[in-house]
Amino acid sequence: MTRILILCTHNSARSQMGEGLLRHLAQKHGLQAEVHSAGTEATFVKEGAKQAMQDIGIDLSSHTSKKLFDLPDPWNFDYVITVCDSAAEACPVYPASTIRLHYPFTDPSGGSQDRWNTVRDQMKVQLEKFVVALSKNLDVPESYEQSPTVALS
């Protein structure tokens, strides 16, 4: 079973959407995965994140914002994916066996629901590439560069 952590600052938006997407995509592609999300701080799951995910059939209503040390066995992950720059900088050092990836997505907080949906869609594309690579025993994408053609209003 592959253990995956999505890490962000507040565990309220991108990391929550990433957790929901990764669970959904792992199931879709037959990947045995245990997925968690956490923040360097805990706050609450934002309504924009819940709505964006509900629109594609993924329910975040039972999700709560968590810090790393709220998770079971927080030092034993196969992959740690940071989804914001501040979390990448604050991410603790993991054992050498843990693969750290940085997929920085724009923070949709404070924006329209269209902005939330755009970030969700960008995350879905990147995380599906990640899951497909894992499910086929290929190298996972090492980085993510936001497409300059996607405007976030």
TrEMBL record:
SUPFAM superfamilies: Phosphotyrosine protein phosphatases I
Database matches in InterPro entries: Ptyr_pPase (IPR023485), Ptyr_pPase_sf (IPR036196)
Keyword Transport on entry: no
UniProt domain Phosphotyrosine protein phosphatase I: residue ranges: 2-133
Keyword Nucleus: no
Swiss-Prot/TrEMBL keywords: Arsenical resistance
Protein name in UniProt: Arsenate reductase
Organism: Deinococcus roseus
